[in-house]
Amino acid sequence: MSESTELKVGVPGDTRLEKLNVEPPKSWLSRLPVVRDLKIAVGWQKGMLVTGLVLTAFFLIVAVFAPWIAPYGYAQIKGADGVAFPTQAPPSKAHIWGTTVGGFDVFSRTVWGARTAVIAIVVAVLLSIFAGVFLGLVSGYFGGWVDRVFVVIADAVYSFPSLLLAILMAIMISGGQSSLWGGILASGISITVVYIPQYFRTIRAEVIRIKDCAYVESAKVVGASTWRIMGRHLLRNSTRTLPVILTLNSSEAILTLAGLGFLGFGIEPTAAAEWGYDLNRSVADVTSGIWWTAVFPGLAIVLIVLGITLIGESLNDLADPRLRARKSAGEVIGSIEDTSVDSPNPDESLAAVAEEQALEAAETDPTERGGDTRTVADEYMVTQDPEIAVVVRDVPDESEGVIKR
Fold first, then answer.
1. Do 136 and 207 touch, CB atoms closer than 8 A?
2. Which residues does 284 contact at the CB level (< 8 Å), separation at least 6?
3. CA quadruple 134, 140, 145, 148: dihedral positive or negative?
């Protein structure tokens, strides 16, 4: 027996094992929340998710490649020849989106503003997640007076208007305006303080729900430490809704950052490009008919917020089992038509078929059937639908006054 024959498993001539298709193990990329949800999304859910991903990916690419996309710097007011840019110039070949009242190129400021917005979002969301998740774990697991103190503080912070709280924190941290990284950190910390209670309350509720489960009690019995239980068992099972909250808070963070810049508490214009500040400077231009200084920064804010919000809403719908299984109306109608009969009343169709077959049987063998077509129809309906057997055999025969069995 050759070595190749020894390695074969099965009956000689049986090729079913060779035709068996084994699914390869899934890669780490396919297990990511957005990628996994993109595969199971259908209908309008998938359309929303794809649209949001395209818009968000576009602004991420613009933010990463801003130095190569923007023709000028965010604070540049002179060309390479030393000639100053015209102020409030309409869109032209040299400045495709025109210039501002300060002589800045609108297209360059809008492109560079995407980088500022993305950096501020990353800083704010990361700080909010780490602080909120940690406090939620500690509060939900230990309970007692620690839980009561944290809940009171979170409720007090959550009761303040988010923009007003961000303004107060920005003034306390940087005095209102600062450099690029100082302004980003100030804006990020200001936004972080606003969103920590959301992560805290979500994680705390999940930890309280699962800390009495059997696997947590088993970990305590085998001697696992408190921090191991919190980090390995509770953390992994209490962060399912974080992607949804993260995306929704990211869109709100952009609006908060733009609000700070619009009110004059954001980043200095010579330190970085910021869409909120550009909108503030374009308020007087709009009344004079100079529309290009406000349209493009405002459109950038709308599109990036729309993209992130669509992702968050799609993930929220897919996380709900009742909405995840929802299909389009066309698919549902098609499946019903495939399984339905032509007649509007299936019982009438079944009875008609039974009578027809009974007549054929009586004509072919009248001695065996005895001309009783009703009995043949009853037997046929019983074989087709067991529920009819109860109806047919238990209904009283009024002509004879007895129940047929």
1. yes
2. 101
3. positive
Residue 280 near residue 264 (C-beta atoms within 8 A): yes
Segments of the chain assigned to CATH 1.10.3720.10:
48-319
Question: What is the pTM for the complete model shown?
Answer: 0.68
Q: 284, 155 in Cβ contact below 8 A?
A: no
Give me the residues paired with residue 78 across strands: 84
User: In 110-148, which positions are buried (b, 16+ CB within 10 angstroms) versus exposed (e)?
Assistant: bbbbbbbbbbbbebbbebbbebbbbbbbbbbbeeeeebe
Q: How far apart are the C-alpha atoms of 281 and 392, rounded to whole Å?
A: 85
Was domain 48-319 assigned CATH 1.10.3720.10? yes
Torsion angle of alpha carbons 260, 262, 268, 272, nearest 10°? 90
Q: What is the pLDDT of residues 290-333, one digit of tens each?
A: 888 889 999 999 999 999 988 888 877 776 655 555 444 444 44
pLDDT in tens, 14-48: 666 666 665 666 665 666 666 666 666 667 777 88
Looking only at the bridges linking them, the beta strands covering 396-397 and 402-403 are antiparallel
**Measured distance CA(3)–CA(113) in Å, rounded:** 67
For residue 11 the two structure tokens come to 């009956």
Residue 136 token pair: 């939620």
- Residue 109 and residue 277: Cα distance in Å, rounded? 11
